[in-house]
Amino acid sequence: MHLKRVIVPDFRVLKDIDITFEPDLVPRIFPLGSLNGGGKSTLLQLIFTLLHCSGDNDRIPYLQNMLDGFDVDDELGKKDLATIDLYVDAKNIELHFVCYTLDYISNKIESEYPEVVANLKFSALTDKSRKCLPSQIQSSWLKDNLCYICDLESKKTGKRIFLLCHFSDLESGVIVSFLSNIRNRICLAAPMTQVFRFLKSTDRVLLFKGGNESHKYYSQVTAAKNILSGF
Prior knowledge:
This protein has 231 residues and is an alpha+beta fold. 34% of the residues lie in helices and 24% in strands. It contains nine helices and six strands; from the N terminus they run E-E-H-H-E-E-H-H-H-H-E-E-H-H-H. Strands 2-1-3-4-6-5 form a six-stranded antiparallel β-sheet. Helix 1 packs antiparallel against helix 2 (60-67).
């Protein structure tokens, strides 16, 4: 698997990021540089969580932590998160990750999948106790190369946001297996002292408190390593 290109329009400190990783360069090591606080670690962690956690229910909470605070304008209803181009098994695959508001998703379902809505109460979508969208909706989207990844309620705004992935050049029947394939082929290596944004915000602050609190942070990093096999 080769990571060909990453586009991140607007995520935290990352603005208008568009990086191409040429496959013919030798050695195939691509250093990223910026000033301190420029977003190098954020970019790597975003790529890692999107590819390593998507499609795995045990890992999804780490992706949700990573996205906490990502806001979507109510009027627009959607916002591009990232586009990742991969070369996998002699095929070029584009993964386009987009976040949507609840209203946008609801209107999309009602207009594009009326046969699903006819057999599904709207409360099934808005029920906050649900851990994911109803399976009827997910199955309908897969036919259109659209895969539901997760949803989350922003601690900052209280809004519910849905993360979906648009696939190109993949048959709907292999999307789930494709996600399983790539998530086991991506890794993230970093020093234990780094701030990992895919941990809970309450755990991240422990790193800066020193003493026993720092040890608690390292315990959470170790716990993450037990779930995120590529970490």
